[in-house]
Amino acid sequence: xxxxxxxxxxxxxxxxxxxxxxxxxxxxxxxxxxxxxxxxxxxxxxxxxxxxxxxxxxxxxxxxxxxxxxxxxxxxxxxxxxxxxxxxxxxxxxxxxxxxxxxxxxxxxxxxxxxxxxxxxxxxxxxxxxxxxxxxxxxxxxxxxxxxxxxxxxxxxxxxxxxxxxxxxxxxxxxxxxxxxxxxxxxxxxxxxxxxxxxxxxxxxxxxxxxxxxxxxxxxxxxxxxxxxxxxxxxxxxxxxxxxxxxxxxxxxxxxxxxxxxxxxxxxxxxxxxxxxxxxxxxxxxxxxxxxxxxxxxxxxxxxxxxxxxxxxxxxxxxxxxxxxxxxxxxxxxxxxxxxxxxxxxxxxxx
Length: 351
Ligand code: APR
Ligand code: ZN
Description:
Elements: E1 2-8, E2 11-17, E3 26-35, H1 38-44, E4 54-55, E5 59-64, E6 74-77, H2 87-90, E7 104-111, E8 114-119, E9 128-132, E10 136-138, H3 145-151, H4 154-166, E11 173-177, H5 181-192, E12 197-202, H6 208-214, E13 218-221, H7 226-233, E14 239-244, H8 249-258, E15 259-267, H9 281-287, E16 290-293, H10 301-314, E17 323-327, H11 332-340, E18 346-350
Parallel strand pairs: 4-8, 11-12, 11-14, 12-13, 14-15, 15-16, 17-18
Antiparallel strand pairs: 1-2, 1-4, 3-5, 3-9, 3-18, 5-6, 6-10, 7-8
The structure holds adenosine-5-diphosphoribose and zinc ion (ZN).
């Protein structure tokens, strides 16, 4: 028996859940930290249509407690473990692996005999998980669990978007729209890449101190005058890069308009099916901008998490500004409410 945050539609409860015994290619992980990510909120607010009842959580780290070669290892959970056999994996894009599971996957969990699904194959807002052995990534024991958890989603996504999808170079100017865990990771990585200006943007002024602590050089509250304000900070041109870390067409359009001719928009936020983005055909040609989405930071977690963990341990990458609340499992439903209100950045459940 394990305790887990279960969604039945929009209603969230901490419930007793029975996990399956791990099979020969699976491991049982005692979760030590799990972040509350906007993608978990998307499971319960109608943006995605997963199957319920659903164990929430996919950004987690813990300790392998089943027997086998990984026993005792500290691990980060990977919500998109690649098959290493499909066309995308064979062509170096494992984050687009053709076998990637949908938002909700059955993994043999039950509550009172009723079958449950788990979020992105992980269901990490729980005391324990059972996952495929290739869905865990060992990390050094001296990386604290809360930050290790973020390496499984917000940090890998945000840092990967900067380094791998966009390739931000020293001296470039960067706009970041949406300052949750993902957007703040983009801010940290952009500064670490040597960006000369990192202009942080959010609907709420409450994110200003978090953005500045993460390394933003400027802070703007988003409104209709955003592109003019950005131009005012970039010699009239617009930024070299804009990162959309909200997941809405309106902020994708704002990101588009905030970049210079020839600039690059990187979409990191995951939005809804019916939220349409409209750009004029002339603007697409004349602005010569690039629009790219960054799935899982265009990263291969098996390859990219260990060096990130080393950067954190060595102090060269400081992701601590992302974590604003350390909470218990029973407080997770309230953390979803905080996220809906746009308060704080990451709430991380510690167990
Ligand atoms: N303009 C600017 N900022 C906005 C707007 C807007 N119109 N609407 C919301 N925001 C801000 C919120 O105030 C909040 O600070 O976007 C931020 C989103 O943060 P979180 O809800 O904490 O989301 P996060 O977990 O960081 O994920 C961001 O990336 O992985 C995807 O599914 C995820 O789409 C989500 C996005
Ligand atoms: Zn996530």
